[in-house]
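Dear all,

This email documents one entry for the complex benchmark we are building for the journal club exercise. For each entry we list the sequence lines for every component of the assembly. Then comes the predicted three-dimensional structure of the complex as a token string, followed by one or two observations. Please use this as the template for your own entries, and keep the labels exactly as they appear.
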Amino acid sequence: MAILKLARMGHPVLKRTADAINDPTAPEIRRLIADMVDTLADASGVGLAAPQVHVPKRLVIFHIPESRAREALDDDMEEGEDEEGEDEEDEEDEEDEEDDEENGNGDAVPMTVLINPEIEALSDETVIGVEGCLSLPDMIGRVPRFRHIRYKALTPDGSNIEREVSGLHARVVQHECDHLEGI
Ligand code: NI
């Protein structure tokens, strides 16, 4: 277990496409995951991609603590009101709430490891939200993300994970997976 050094914006490792992992159960991958979990906790972050610790491999970790999950649910609703306004507001908000319940939005997500993740947008709908990144300390920005996605990946024990998610969960996964594309 170790706290790894974070790559900052401008480092070439953040600009390249990361390589697929052949064996998710390999000892060096297990070690990398343990170190990334420690590093993320030390930085009080939500997510971390392997390139951010100078390892150009397709692996990301993330979690959504209860406190963040609640905040995001509130933000999401406020934003919906701002953008939609007018007559349909009530109806759409109700639909949003139903969606949020179905997708477990507003719920915390335990520490999750995705190896060789793939993302598919489930609709064209995007949402703008504020994001930060451990590789760009002291900066935040408004970023549009798909509201609903499906993601597939391998887990550290070599099994498959497939989830349909929305809201903050979808946002975090999209942010971390961008790092694997050099974005
Ligand atoms: Ni980031």
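Observations: Residues 84 and 92 are 9 Å apart (CA to CA). DSSP finds four helices and seven strands in the chain.
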